[in-house]
Amino acid sequence: PVLLLPSHLIEVDSLSDSFSRSFAPDAADRAARSCCELKSKTEPEAPLQHPHSRRRRQLKVEYDQDEGVSPVKTERWEPPDWRKQLRFIREMRSSRDAPVDHMGAEKCYDPNAPGHVRRFQVLVSLMLSSQTKDQVTAAAMQKLRAHGCTVENILATDDEKLGKLIYPVGFWRNKVKYLKLTSAMLQKEFGGDIPNTVEGLVRLQGVGPKMAHLAMDIAWDQVSGIGVDTHVHRISNRLGWLRKPTKNPEETRKALEEWLPRELWSEINWLLVGFGQQVCQPVSPLCSMCLNQNSCPSRQGLSAALGPSTSVFS
C-alpha cells in the first residue's frame, strides 16, 4: 500500500538538493508518524476492561493518581499471619463471657425505649465509658435509666444530682459538663436525637472518633470506621498488625483501615476488647494461655511469657 501524505507535512521543494538527500528520509518518517497520530485521534478508543474493576472501585486505597500521570499500582500491605491470628482470637472469644459482652454499650440501653431515646442512651454509655471499666459504666447507666436517661431529663437534672448518678466513672465531673452541653446541642439542633454522621457526632462535647464510630455502628447500624480503644490499640501493636508502631488509638484506626477488610471493621472492636480484658491484658498478659503465643512478635518481650507454653483454649 502507498501512504499519501498531506502536502503541508513535508515541504521538500524549498530546500537544497543536498539538504533533501540528508534529511528527507527522516522527515518522511516523522510525517508518517504524524499522520498515524492524526488518524488515531479521530478514531474512538475502545474502553479498557479489567476483571477486577468493580472491586477496585469499592476499595478505599488501591492506586495513587496525580493529574497528568499514569496510574501506578501501590503495594497492598497486610500482616503475614493475621488471618490465622484472627481465627484463634475468635476461638478464644467464643464463650462470650468478657465484661464487654454483658456490660458494653450494646447492653446498656433500654431496648423498649423509642428509637431516639435508645440512640441517646448508646451515646451516653459511650461517653461514660472513657477511662472507665465496663462494670462501672454499666452501674452508672443503670442508675441513669432508673432516673430517666433522656435528653429532657438530663437537662432538667442539676449538676450535683447528675454527678451522684454517674459517680464513680472516670473524670465524672467533666462528664457531667459534657452530658449537659451535649444534651442541649441535641435538643437544639437535632430534635433530641443524635447525629447520624461521624462529622456531626464529633462536634458534640466529650465525643471523639472512637465513640463516634461505635455510635454509628451500635445506634445507627452503619459501619463508618473502626472503633479503636486502648485494647484495640495495644493488641494491634503487639500482634504486629500495623505497618509501623502507632502512638495513639486514632493512628491505629487509620493504620488498620488501610488493610483490614471492611466487613471486619465492626467485629474487630468487640473481639479485641474482650480479648484484651481476658487474655492480652495491659499488665502481665497471659501469653502462655494464648493460642497466638507462637506467632505473636511481642511474646518474647512480655514478662508473662515466662513459664510453660500451654493454653486453656487448646
List keywords for this structure.
single chain, 314 residues, mainly alpha, Endonuclease Iii, domain 2, Endonuclease III, domain 1, two-stranded antiparallel ribbon, 14 helices, 50% helix, 1% strand, lyase, glycosidase, iron, metal ion binding
Summarize the model shown:
It catalyses: 2'-deoxyribonucleotide-(2'-deoxyribose 5'-phosphate)-2'-deoxyribonucleotide-DNA = a 3'-end 2'-deoxyribonucleotide-(2,3-dehydro-2,3-deoxyribose 5'-phosphate)-DNA + a 5'-end 5'-phospho-2'-deoxyribonucleoside-DNA + H(+). This protein has 314 residues and is an all-alpha fold.
Topology:
Layout: H1 17-42, H2 53-58, E1 63-64, E2 72-73, H3 82-92, H4 99-103, H5 115-129, H6 134-147, H7 151-156, H8 159-166, H9 172-189, H10 198-201, H11 209-220, H12 230-238, H13 249-257, H14 265-278
Antiparallel strand pairs: 1-2
